[in-house]
Amino acid sequence: MDKRKEANRLVKDRLLDALLDLAQGKDLSRVKVVELVERSGVARASFYRNFGSMEDVVGYGIDRMARLYHEGMPADAAPRSREAVLYRFRFYREHADIVLAFHRAHAGTTLLDVVTDCEISEGGDMPANSIARYELYYFAGAFYNMLVCWLEGGMRETPEAMADEFLRLAHGV
């Protein structure tokens, strides 16, 4: 990566980190650009060179999280295997701050879209005329809701226990 792109990525990461920090005390929709640049130590012009709006910062965070998710997913894990579900719980535990910040900012639908897109990329989308296509959305929605409940509850259970419980519920045991 060239120096300019790397510098822009660092600015974007600093702005995202500052946004997540500010989100600990207030709803993301109430964070102002002036607060964000002050907290991040980034010039206002740098904000506008990299982003058009606060929503773009949120989008960058979600895109970054999705990229990291795909980079870390074991290549040989079947989409609904214990290994894949365990990876998901471990990954989202590591990124709990961003998931919870976006959830609390009522950007949960966007995060659910990310989880669903991950399911589609891993398991393939179903044909529109197949009733089986609903399974993918069921799985993604159930996982997302269980994940948020676990994260908000302080992650008292291990990712292993969560993966086992999720699979138990998903299989109707």
From TrEMBL:
The HTH tetR-type domain sits at 9-69
Gene3D superfamilies for the chain: Tetracycline Repressor, domain 2
Q: Does the keyword Membrane apply?
A: no
- Spans traversing the lipid bilayer: none
User: Under what name is this protein listed?
Assistant: TetR family transcriptional regulator
The UniProt keyword set, sorted, is: DNA-binding
Q: Which Pfam families match?
A: TetR_C_8, TetR_N
Looking at the UniProt feature table, which residue ranges are given for the DNA-binding region? 32-51
> Which InterPro entries does its entry note?
Homeodomain-like_sf, HTH-type_Tx_Regulator, HTH_TetR, TetR_C_Firmicutes
